[in-house]
Every structure is written in structure tokens, then in C-alpha cells.
Amino acid sequence: MSHWICVLVQTPAHAALGSVLSYQSPTPLPPGTLVRVPLGTRETLGVVWDADAAQASGEIDPGKVRAIAGVLEGVAPLNASWQQLVTFSAQYYQRSLGEVALAALPPQLRDLSAAQLQRRFKRSKNQPATAPDCAPSHAPELTPEQAQVVAQIEAHSGPFLLFGATGSGKTEVYLHAVADLLAREPQAQALVMVPEINLTPQLEARFQARFAPLYGAAAVVSLHSGMTNPQRLSSWLAAHSGAARIVLGTRMAVFASLPHLRLVVVDEEHDPSYKSGEGARYSARDLAVYRGHIDNAKVLLGSATPSLESWHQSRAPEQGGRYLRLHMPSRVGQDAALPKVRLVDMTHQPRNAVFSTPLLAAIEQRIARGEQCMVFLNRRGYAPVLHCPDCGWKSECAHCSAYRVFHKIDRTLRCHHCGFTERVPRSCPTCGNPDIAALGRGTERLEEHLAELLANVRRPHSASAAFPDGEPVRVARIDADSTRHKGALQAQLAAVHSGEVDVLVGTQMIAKGHDFRRIGLVAAVNPDGALFSSDFRAPERLFGLLLQASGRAGRDAALGVDAEMWIQTSQVTHSLYAALKRHDYPAFAQQQLKDRAQAGLPPFSAQALVRAEARTQEVAQGFLNAASAAAQHADVATPGWADALAQVTLYPAVPMSIQRIANVERAQMLVESPSRAALQRFMSGWQGVLHRSRQSPEGKGLIRWAIDVDPLAI
Ligand code: ADP
Ligand code: ZN
Ligand code: ZN
Question: How far is Cα 709 from Cα 94, in angstroms, rounded to an integer?
């Protein structure tokens, strides 16, 4: 006798074939079981799904229902809450169930044959866990602020927003909360997420040092895209089997199978990297909160500059707040004050000055005292554009509506959008003028310029015993270019930690998270751009970045450094800088939320974007506008559709801010509603309309389209 089952598979996006297919199986299989199934001429991984929850597509012709190829032996079915997470994500982010489910599994589970997987399982069972290569560490005694926060986490169910200054010891709170949990519940698992792969090794070392002596090295595993596929599979299996008690990872880890999940930590919860830029475009932070809810796990979001969404959610309960706000305003350590913020009025400096005189003097002074400095500029490369002063030629990309960036190190012009790279021309390609010049400044040029300015400064005697005094000052740079090669970042960070480097120049890569001990001064040389951006989230991001950057200074109270954050600006009276000067995130947030409420922007409304790509703007915009018009009189079966339609605003299609990339024209349409539920209902009904528009004459020439729910960049 044969049983009919529903199976999720990965089908090409928008294919006529749904992602839920029917198969036959000789035995009944519970939902969540991993199976290999035939699909067309190949065999693929599938997940057995609840037949009631997933409507299999198409008419079922009993004679045509194929049999599964086999069950993936040795892997327990994915549990109900994992299935619910997938179902919710697919619905909320408007993607197919199969796409979300299969993307949530490690690639090797999909790609290896059953026999290969069996060998891998056997091997990983026999492999002894490698011992941690770090000294065990003991938990320090909590500060009163930390102790109070930990007690609140014990006492309440959350979700929590831990609003803690940089260096207030948030990580120590996470460690403590995890330690309490593991000690209390013998099987419980914790998921700890960080925004950047770069931050995982440091975090992993801290967690290993604390927990490996108690639970063994295998109790802590990582999950991020910087790992090899075999490593990812092995971490995933360890989490799925329950052997791993702590999973550390980036946003993808939110989908890990954790049958005994009891605690989810989202560190630096405001960070945009929690939002995926492809596929389901999910927010791992938001899914973490949902996951906590269905798994009955506590959720702890932490930040010194929370996202305005989370800040708003953590307002007083009587005002509708749903998160509990916990506050740690002080830095750890006796009189470890937050860095003093100094604004330099650049309108009083010589035009074209990159470093103001007082900032340069302050940097020299710090070096003389044996301290390190960090200079922050959020633009990599040597110069954002090359130009010819004679004829006006600029280094435009032939394929994008953007300039190619000049990289002096290999004398190339590189497009940061499509990757198109060419040698720098000897002379202007238009008029032959040999004097083409760099316009503007990126980190590479800043590093060069600073090294010139500091050429006559020598290192002091006290700097570091390992590095001789009287040598020239060392300026180093860390950005996406300097760290392209594997291991480069670790080596460069080590050079900073060891004291080999005096001044570190870099992009936001150096502003986040790193626990540099000897930095006394942080400077942002040209941050004003974001004040005038058309993106309503730009001020929020700038405030966060500057405050995070300032948090890199004076982290070691024992050094007794009077840390400073310098900001060069021509907007000294701007309210954002005024709030930053006082380290007053709440005041900044209040002002921003007031503006957003007035303008009806998130978190006071919900948004979704539909993006379309075609060879011409007309086609891309035409598709969106046609689908928008069709929505008004479409026959949509979604319950409550008419009601939802009345509550959403569909804006006209417009070109995206970078309108053309790699010869593809890009357009977008914003959909907005004061009601999240109405937007959801509208989008799920409108999806069908979009699919039909694609088949209609208006869809001709369209390359692709995609929905982005809760977009971060409009
Ligand atoms: P945050 O994550 O808030 O920036 P961290 O948790 O990294 O802060 O803590 C900053 C520094 O203070 C770290 O070096 C950490 O080891 C130290 N620290 C944290 N809590 C304590 C404590 N209770 N006692 C002593 N040192 C602590
Ligand atoms: Zn020219
Ligand atoms: Zn390009």
C-alpha cells in the first residue's frame, strides 16, 4: 500500500509549477521528514509537509504521482516549530514555501547524494570535537547594572530590548543569560546572533572560553556564510541533533533547526545586515522575535543605538509597547567614561582641508602618548571618481548609472556595482589630456594623505616594547579592499591589537563591535552626506554608526585614557550632532520618531517594495504600473481583499536610486499602509495579479521582479 504525501521542493522562482508537490511513499512519513524525490529528470531534496497546510498545486492524476526516491536516513524530522517558522516567513515575505524551506537548510544537505551524506554522518559521529585553543575564562562578578538586567531577564518573559552603552558589558549579560539557562535546563539550546561574520571569531572565542570547560568544545558551534559547506553541514547537524547547546551565527542562523531552543540573543539588533538582500529578504531580527514566540524562548535584543522600530516597540506597556526595555547606561570599570564628542566646524577651516588643524594636532598628541587613533570614512577606494578638468570627462561605468571608483593600489577603475574593471587610462579617453585628476576621497587616499601629514612624527619610547621607538608612525587601513584575501582581516586586526599600528583608517568595518583596547581617539572626517540623503533612515544609520565608532575609543578603563570622538562637519548646530555630543540616543530617537509619525513613515506605517528589472525603464515601470492599475479591479479570492485594498497606498513606479546596473534598468514601486495586517493581505492577493501581469503584454521584456517586505532602503 502506498501513502500520498506533500513535499516541498525548490522550484525556480515564479515557475508555473508550485513548490508543493505530491508524491507516493511506501510508508507514512511525518511532516518535517527529509526525503529525496524525483523532479523532472533529476533527483532533489524535499521536505515532507502537512497536506492540510500546503495545498499541492495542480490536479492530481493518481497515475502520474511519482514515488519518492528515499528518506534521508539519520536525520530526524524537522520539528513543528521549525515548520511554523518557515510557513510564517514564506507568508510574511511573500515567497514560496519550498524556496524558504530549502534555502534554510545547509547546501550540502541539498547537493550531496544520499550515499555521500551517509558517509559524512558517519565521519562526524566518529570525529572527536577539537579542543578550544583559548584559555578558559571565568565569569567576572556582574556590575550592579548588569546584575539588575540579568535579574529582569530571569523574572520576565520578554522580548527584551537591552539598551546598553558601548562597553557597558552587554556581551557579558548574554554570556550570563546563556550560562544560567544551560545550567538550569540540561537540554536547552541558545542562539546568539551577530550582524557580521567578522565579529563571529571574537565572539566564538569568548563563548568557547566560557563554555567549553563546562560542556565541551562541541557544545558551541558557529553558522555563517564564511564557513565551508562541510563545516556548515556539521554545525547544522550538531544543532539539529541537540548536541550543540549554543549556536553563534549571522542572520542565516535564525533558520537553524534547534529543537530545544530557549533563548535567542540578537546583538547589535539595529544592524542592517540582519536584513537579507536576496531571496525572501527576511529580517533575522524580526524572525528571531517571532521564533521566540512560537518556541517559547526568551528573546534578547541588544544595542547601544537600537533600531527605531525596536525602540518604539519598547515604549511603556501602557502606551502599547510590547518589548521590555532594559537599560545599562554606564561603561564597565571605574570611571570609564564615554568618549567626549568634539565637533570641528569645517566652515572655519581652509577649503579643501581634509584634516582640520586641531584634529591633526590631537592625533599627533595621542601618538606621542603611545595611544592609537582610528579615522573613519565610509567610502573605500582612492577616489570615488576620476575626471578631466579640460573636457569634463568622468569615469562613468559603461554599464551602470554610477561612477567607477579609482583604486590607486593597482591603478584600476572599478565599478562597485557591476564589478567592471579597467586599467586607468593614461590620458583622458575623450580629449587626450594627460592630466586627469581624482575627485573626492576614499579610504585609500585618506590613508596616503595621513601618512604624508604624519611623515615627521616618530613613535614614542612608551608605545610598545615589541616595536622600536623612534620609527615613523604606522598608518594602516582596513576596508573591503584590504581584507579581500582570506585571513587578511584577522592579520590586520591582530596588528592593531598588538600595537604595531598607530593610526587605523577604515570604513564601517572598523566601527562595529571590535574590542580595541588602546584607541584613545576616533575621528569621522566627513560624515555630513547622510544628513541630506533622500533615504529617511539615513540619519538613524549615521547616528548609530558614529556612536558605535565612538564606542571603539577608551574601552580599557585601566589605561585611564580620556577618550575622544572627533567629528568634522559643516553643520555644527545640527540636532543629530547635538544629541551625539550628549550621548543622548533617547532624545535623538524621540525627535526621529516624531518626524516619522508626522510623515506616516515606519514604524507608524508598514511598507513593501516591488522591484522590477528590464532592458528599459519604460518596460520596468510599465510592468509595475500595469499591475498597480490591475489591482483596482482584479478578481482576487483573498478574504478581506477589498478592505485591504482600501487601506493601502500604491505609489507610482519610479527608477531606483541606482537606476541601471550591468545594463539592466531597475524600477520600484512603494506600497504603504498604516495597517501591517492590511498590507499583508493586500500583498498576498496582489502577488497573483503580478504573476498575471508578467504574462500579459505589459510584462513583455521584463527580466525579473521581486517583493521586499519591510525594505530597509527605499
Ligand atoms: P559591550 O558588548 O556592551 O560593548 P562588553 O561585554 O564587550 O561590552 O564589555 C566591555 C568590556 O568590559 C569587555 O572587555 C569585558 O570583558 C569587560 N567586562 C564586562 N563586564 C564585566 C564585569 N562585570 N566585570 C569586569 N569586566 C567586565
Ligand atoms: Zn578630457
Ligand atoms: Zn558598473
Answer: 8
Number of Cβ within a 10 Å radius of residue 242 = 15
Give the position, in ligand 1's atom list, of the atom nearest the Cα of 515: 7
Q: How far apart are CA 413 and CA 406, in angstroms?
A: 5
CA–centroid distance, residue 354 to ligand 2 (Å): 26
DSSP 29-61: --TT-EEEEEETTEEEEEEEE-TTTS---S---
Ligand 1: does its nearest atom lie under 6 Å from the Cβ of 712?
A: no
Residues 6+ apart with CB under 8 A from 33: 47, 48, 71, 72, 77
Name every residue whose Cβ is closer than 8 Å to that of residue 523 and which is 6 or more positions away in sequence.
359, 363, 373, 374, 375, 376, 565, 566, 567, 568
Note whether 623 and 702 are within 8 A (CB). yes
Return d(Cα 364, Cα 457) in angstroms, integer. Answer: 7
Q: Give the ligand whose atoms come closest to the C-alpha of residue 432.
A: 2
Encode pLDDT of 276-332 as tens digits: 988 889 999 999 999 999 999 999 999 999 999 999 999 999 999 999 999 999 888
pLDDT given for residue 119 in this prediction: 80
Note whether 286 and 311 are within 8 A (CB): no
Residue 201, pLDDT score: 78
614: β partners: 665, 702
Residue with cell 546596473: 661
Those residues of the chain that have pLDDT short of 70 are: 1, 12-18, 52-63, 124-136, 334-336, 461-469, 513, 557-561
Q: Quick one: CA torsion of 677, 303, 203, 527, rounded to 10 degrees?
A: 110
Distance of CA 572 to the CA centre of its chain: 31
Q: Which residue has the cell 564589478?
A: 419
Q: DSSP 3-state assignment of 453?
A: helix
Q: Which three cell numbers stand for residue 389?
A: 578638468
Q: For ligand 1, what atom is nearest to the CA of residue 173?
A: 6
DSSP state of 468: -
| Contact between residue 428 and residue 436 where contact means Cβ atoms under 8 Å apart | yes
Q: Cis omega (within 30 of 0) on the bond before 159?
A: yes
- 603: cis peptide before it, omega within 30°? yes
The residue whose CA is least distant from atom 25 of ligand 1 is: 140
Return the closest-CA partner of residue 623 out of 671, 660, 666, 663.
666
Which pLDDT score is estimated for 46?
Answer: 94
Judge contact between 510 and 504, C-beta under 8 A.
yes
Q: Which amino acid is at 573?
A: T
CA angle 510, 514, 515 (to 5 degrees): 135
Q: Is 331 in the pocket of ligand 1 (CB under 6 A)?
A: no
Here the cell at position 609 is: 517594495
Check if 380 has its Cβ closer than 6 Å to any atom of ligand 1.
no
Torsion of CA 58, 59, 65, 69, to 10 degrees: 20
CB 386 within 8 A of CB 422: no
Ligand 1 centre distance from Cα of residue 142 (Å): 9
Domains of the chain, start order: 3-126 (3.40.1440.60), 144-328 (3.40.50.300), 340-380+442-598 (3.40.50.300), 383-440 (no CATH), 606-709 (3.30.70.360)
